[in-house]
Design a protein that fits this description.
By secondary structure, the protein is of the alpha/beta class. The chain has 12 helices and 13 strands. The protein folds into 2 domains: 212 residues, Alpha-Beta Barrel (TIM Barrel); 84 residues, no CATH class. The structure holds flavin mononucleotide. The site of flavin mononucleotide (FMN) has 31 residues, from strand 5, strand 11 and helix 8. Flavin mononucleotide (FMN) binds next to strand 5, strand 11 and helix 8.
Length: 337
């Protein structure tokens, strides 16, 4: 095994330090998460936008499909979601291995995790929030860069962010008898990228766009075809109703949002704590998943063009291993010259 193991908590370690990033709405579900866990990584069910019953079903299905103990199953919950607390509590009750929080920052989540005995990894984009998270008891930190898909907290690259965040974490005393892991997310696409970011000080990576183009990701074929057709499409940053920037493929909906002609939502289920109501994001993300190019919002990572094919999760993991092993060998040869 070319990659080091990843320690999540005192009692939990996974074989491969790769997290499949959570993708709402219903883009990353149980079959994808379980396939990643079966390869030794951390598979993530996106909980945002799910009702209690559906989240319970998804976690139980992922456990059923989990064939070994090499990896782990996590949930990703957007702090911006109105149902944040319910989704956290249900995940804890269902015995989830790890909770990842994104799109906003919760101070209370660390106490909730401690009480429920579930490790918490917040997604942050600044040294300041990384430090606060460690002080509050985070079990790990995911630092997400401007190259990522979905909501963005920075325009800095992952290579710029990692050294600063590493220094910031080192300045806070460890609460455990090991260093909490630092996970790099955004724009990482190959085994070579993984090795390079580990050498910069990360302990693991989170990747999402790659996993949309997997056989196990159960979005519509149109969604995957849109990704594979990226050479003929453009992407942009939009102002999300959540109050953050978000990277998306330009679809007719995105054009309407940008030129101000998109109609405001007529019905609102109040899925967000604070919503600008510029358009209904939950509906737009759900339509993308169902394959409606006209009205869908297709979140995407900046480096999408590097992926040329749909692979099984097993093939994706094997490809990363092969690429990483080749790269490490080549570096060795280069150093000997
Ligand atoms: C389709 C899509 C949906 C996403 N949804 C979420 C989400 O619900 N919550 C979250 O924290 N991050 C979300 N993200 C961000 C990813 O989890 C991940 O951190 C990021 O995309 C990593 O960069 P990469 O796509 O270049 O690998 C999403 C990304 C994509 C591409």
């Amino acid at each position: 095994m070319i990659f080091p193991k990843l320690q999540i908590s005192e009692n939990l370690e996974v074989l491969v330090p790769i997290i499949q990033g959570g993708m709402a709405i219903r883009v990353s579900r149980a079959p994808l998460a379980a396939a990643v866990a079966n390869m030794g990584g951390i598979g993530v069910i996106a909980a945002s936008g799910l009702r209690e019953k559906e989240l319970r079903e998804q976690i139980r299905l992922a456990r059923k499909l989990q064939l070994n103990k090499k990896g782990a199953i996590a949930v990703n919950i957007m702090f911006a979601a109105s149902e944040f607390n319910m989704l956290v509590n249900v995940s804890i009750e269902e015995g989830i291995d790890l909770i990842i929080t994104g799109a906003g920052f919760s101070r209370d989540i660390f106490a909730m995790g401690k009480e429920g005995n579930v490790p918490i990894f917040p997604i942050v984009s600044s040294a300041k929030l990384a430090k606060i998270s460690k002080k509050l008891g985070a079990s790990g930190i995911i630092v997400e860069s401007g190259e990522a898909g979905g909501h963005l907290g920075t325009d800095l690259s992952i290579n710029e962010l990692i050294p600063d965040i590493k220094d910031a974490l080192n300045s806070v005393p460890d609460q455990k008898d090991y260093e909490i892991p630092l996970i790099a997310a955004g724009g990482i696409t190959s085994g070579m990228d993984i090795i390079n970011i580990l050498r910069k000080g990360a302990n693991g990576v989170q990747m999402a766009t790659r996993f949309v183009l997997s056989k196990e990701c159960d979005v519509s074929d149109v969604f995957k075809k849109v990704y594979l057709n990226i050479a003929n499409l453009d992407m942009t940053l939009i102002n999300s109703p959540v109050g953050m920037k978000a990277r998306s493929i330009i679809t007719p909906l995105v054009e309407r949002i940008m030129n101000g002609t998109q109609e405001k939502p007529d019905k609102c289920i109040k899925c967000l704590k604070n919503c600008s109501q510029s358009f209904c994001i939950i509906k737009a993300l759900d339509l993308a998943r169902r394959g409606d190019f006209e009205n869908g919002l297709f979140f995407v990572g900046e480096n999408i063009a590097k992926y040329k094919e749909i692979l099984s999760v097993k093939e994706i993991f094997e490809k990363f291993q092969t690429e990483a092993a080749k790269y490490v060998e080549e570096c060795g040869k280069f150093l000997k010259v």
